[in-house]
Amino acid sequence: MWKLAEVGFREEKSSARLQADLKAAGFRIDKGVDGMPTAFIATAGSGGPVIALLAEYDALPGLSQAAVPEQQAVPGSAAGHACGHNLLGAASVSAAIALKEWLAKSGTPGTVRLYGTPAEEGGFAKAFLARDGLFRDVDVALSWHPSDRNSASQGQMLSVINGKFHFTGVPSHAAAAPERGRSALDGVEVMNVAVNYLREHVPQEARIHYTITNGGDQPNIVPANAESFYYARHYDPAVTLDIWDRIKNAAQGAALATGTKVSVELIGGSYGTLPNYTLGKIADRYLRQTGGFSYSAQETAYAQKITASLPQGGRESGGPETVADFVEGSRTPASSDVGDVSWVTPTLQISTATWVPGTPPHSWQAASASGTSIGVKGALLAAETLALTGAELFRSPEEIAAAKAEFDKARGPNYHYRAMVGDQKPALDYTRK
After folding, report:
1. One-character DSSP codes across 28-40
2. In this predicted structure, what is the pLDDT of residue 59?
3. Which of 43, 200, 296, 396 is the most exposed place for a label (fewest CB within 10 A)?
């Protein structure tokens, strides 16, 4: 999975590999679900509660990295697993297979379902699956994410919305006839300036970030087309949507100022996670029972080099040997489309130390560790913890009932889930250049 490193909605080989392992283990496979060719659902067992596991497998563009402690791209590869989704998908599949085998051997009634969800890094596949009711009969969802620490703490993540702004101008010779041109790149840059001034006037917890995905062809042509790619985030989805409207206003103002036109392509969005402490406490118990892990001499030497490459030399606390204290009510300034799942069914998310302590996600150091034995050890710990948690839930309907009661109380009596992605179809080509 790490070597394949395919970006969102293009994970053909990665998705096929996971499906092959599940089919060989006796799962029934539904391919290309909900209009997404690399999405799938694998089901085993029958009757009883339905417990879902979530698998991701998309890589990040521009972060190709060899499994070495120095920054070094893999020849011929443009993407890398800098968020560890190779480990995430493999461990979730392993946990699903373990649960399927346990159900059969123990004679316990129950259904285990593995959701293969592409394009977490911007395409928000889970939000479309949640919107279209594919989690409707799920009793509990179990998930995990690579990290630099072992933790079953449950907290809130940021809601997020993203999209591309397409500016259209008038081409002309930039030296001989600049007055006849209207620069689409000027529109992008004026918009960026306006949004950067906007930052002073949004809540402190908000996040706005962008990249210019098309700046024109060459300097002597007034750019007729240009494009920027924006994200907006906040813990409150209503605030996120308000910020997004203000970003769109900045784009319209920039178009007016530069004599260009602009259109907005909404790609997707997701809610922040709704924590479920009932599930978190069960997983915490098994994470501690399974225990952390230690580095070999070779892994220690690798980790020391990675630590030396990190800003401020990494972080001293935490690490693979320990399990962090269980915390309720924490906030994480990141986003995941697991958030939408958590608003339609009780959802667990844990983390394990697949990376060297202090490693930030979306870094070459994370991509490197995700291809090493350190990453595999962390993924195995996650798979074992999820499988043990799932087995207890299958045996204990009262715990599922308690998780559902907490879920219903947290959402409130009149809550109705409405996806931030609206009624649009998945943006299957959002990673295009």
Report:
1. EEEESGGG-TT-E
2. 98
3. 200
Distance (Å) of CA 57 to CA 13, 60, 321, 378, 432:
10, 10, 26, 16, 18
Helices 373-395 and 397-411: crossing angle in degrees, nearest 10, is 100
The percent of residues above 90 in pLDDT, for the chain, comes to 96
- SS3 (DSSP) at 301: helix
Residue 271 has a CB neighbour count (10 Å cut-off) of 29
Whose tokens are 């081409």? That residue is 171
Tally of CB atoms within 10 A around 114: 28
**CB of 111 closer than 8 Å to CB of 97:** no
Q: Distances in Å between the alpha carbon of 308 and those of 120, 121, 363?
A: 30, 28, 14
Write the CB contacts of 122 (distance below 8 Å, at least 6 apart in sequence).
8, 162, 267, 268, 430, 431
229: phi then psi, degrees, rounded to nearest 5: -125, 115
Question: Strand, coil or helix: what is 75?
Answer: coil
Give me the domains of the chain, ranges plus CATH numbers: 12-157+272-411 (3.40.630.10), 159-270 (3.30.70.360)
Q: Which residues contact 202 (CB under 8 A, 6 or more apart)?
A: 208, 234, 239, 243, 246
Q: What is the DSSP code (8-state) at residue 325?
A: P
Cβ–Cβ under 8 Å, residues 206 and 131:
no
Q: What are the residues whose beta carbons fall under 8 Å from the beta carbon of 376, sequence distance 6 or more?
A: 87
AA letter at 320: P
Q: Which residues are 151's β-sheet partners?
A: 351
Q: How far is Cα 48 from Cα 139, in angstroms, rounded to an integer?
A: 10
Q: Tell me 69's DSSP state.
A: S
Determine the average pLDDT of the residues in 233-242. Answer: 96
- The Cα–Cα gap between 431 and 10 comes to 9
Reading the block at residue 182, the tokens are 């209207």
